[in-house]
Each structure stands twice: as C-alpha cells, then as structure tokens.
Amino acid sequence: MRVLVWGENVHETRDERVRRIYPDGMHEHIAAALRGLVPAADVRTATLQQPEHGLAAEALGGADVLVWWSHIAADDVADEVAERVRREVLGGMGLVVLHSAHLSKPFRLLMGTSCNLRWREDEDRELIWTVDPGHPIARGVPSPISLDRHEMYGEVFDIPAPDELVFISNFSGGEVFRSGCCFRRGAGRIFYFSPGHETVGVYHHPSIQRVLANAVSWAAAPRVELVELRESTWSPSGWYEGART
Ligand code: ZN
Fold first, then answer.
1. Residue 240 has pLDDT above 90, yes or no
2. Is residue 193 situated within a structural domain?
3. What's the CATH code of the domain at 104?
4. Closest CA to 165 of 177, 182, 142, 143
5. In a domain? residue 240
6. pLDDT band at residue 223, thresholds of 50, 70 and 90?
7. Considering the domain boundaries, does residue 232 fall inside one?
C-alpha cells in the first residue's frame, strides 16, 4: 500500500506552539505513526511549498491513499491540483481528510456542498463515540476516545449524508458532531475525521493514530480506468425534429 501524507506545513513554520508539538511538521508526524502501525505501507510526504504542492500526476498516480491536513492556506492550493486530486479519487485513490481540511478544495469539490460547520476554540473536552463498531475503521478503537481539550466542531456540518458514519463526537458545551464520515465517489473511498487541531497534540494520541491507520487501510482500493464522460449529443429539440421527419 502506498500512502502519501500531504501537509499544508504553514502553522508549523509560524507558530512556536505548533512547532513544539510537531517539530518535523504534522505531515511527518502522521507519516511516522502510519509507518509504525501499517508496516506494509510505503508512506511518503508532500507539502504545499513543493512544486505542484508535491502532487504532480506521477506522485498522485503512485498513491493508493492521500492523507490531507490543511487550514489557513487551503485556498493557496492551485485549482488544477485540486481538480487532479478529485479525478484521482474518482479513479480509485483513497482520500483521508483531517480536521480543518473540511474546507480544502479537493474535499469541497468531491462533496459539492459548502462543508461549513460551527466551531469554537476553547477548553472543551471532546468524547469520540463509535457508532458503527463493526466498521473496519473502528477496529481496536476504544469508545469513547476522550480528548481533554480540543477545538469544538459542531453541527450543522454542511456535507451530503455520509455513506457510512463511524464516529460522532460530543463536547462539554453540549454540541454534537459527525466526526468520522465515509463517502464513496466514483471508485474512490473518502474518510473525513475531525480531530486534529494544530495547537493540541491530538496526533500523538494512540487511539487517534489507530483510527488513522485503519482509515488508510480502508480507503486503499483498487484503481479503475477513468472513462471520460462525453457531452451528450442528444437534445430535446433534436429528438422532436427527428421524430417529425
Ligand atoms: Zn482547528
């Protein structure tokens, strides 16, 4: 299995708090966790700052799963790169979308909705409850996972109804949130997982790492040949004219 972990890599370079938690960047931290938990995986990393954001056609074509964390620089991703990611997902590449990447271009393209949500950066405790214990992404994950302090993400989360819902979270403020959602688009599998605010070390949590490892294993699916959709030559008036003669 080939996994590409993509990080925006901006908070890590600007914010000392984030650098202390993730000295090599969040993407390198997540990649190291995946290497430990999925030994068979070939895990690589890429960042926004690289040419084509490290997401040239060869890099994406060689990935079974793309893991994506972004936040303040989400709109700096080139439209053609976001579109390339969308097409690769339709062709079978898995996509694991983390935390604030709910507003990333590829995720919004694939969902077709605003993907907005309610949020509050405070001292909330988050409990992540498994609602589908038979799901492969929930395997070996305790329920609930308790995060002592995390940013609140709350409903309404403007996404299409997920094809499978694996986790919901509740917060000490009383809010609830669909925190682990599966979608299928074309031949591709997409998993959105909300934990991962940059100033709390969520990706150090062993159960969160277990979810990430399960998610990349679930999202890796065989590629298919993309069939180009051609513009239809059919038109109502043409049919009517044809029917008359
Ligand atoms: Zn956040």
1. no
2. yes
3. 3.40.50.880
4. 182
5. no
6. confident
7. no
123 Cα: distance to centroid of ligand 1 (angstroms): 13
Separation of CA 71 and ligand 1 centre (Å): 7
Task: Compute the distance from residue 214 Cα to the ligand 1 centre, in Å.
Answer: 22
Question: What is the pTM assigned to this prediction?
Answer: 0.92
**Which residues place a Cβ less than 5 A from the ion ligand 1?**
100, 151, 197
Q: How confident is the model at residue 245 (pLDDT cuts 50, 70, 90)?
A: very low
On whether residue 178 sits in a domain, the answer given is: yes
Q: Which domain holds residue 89?
A: 2-219
- Total domain count, the chain: 1
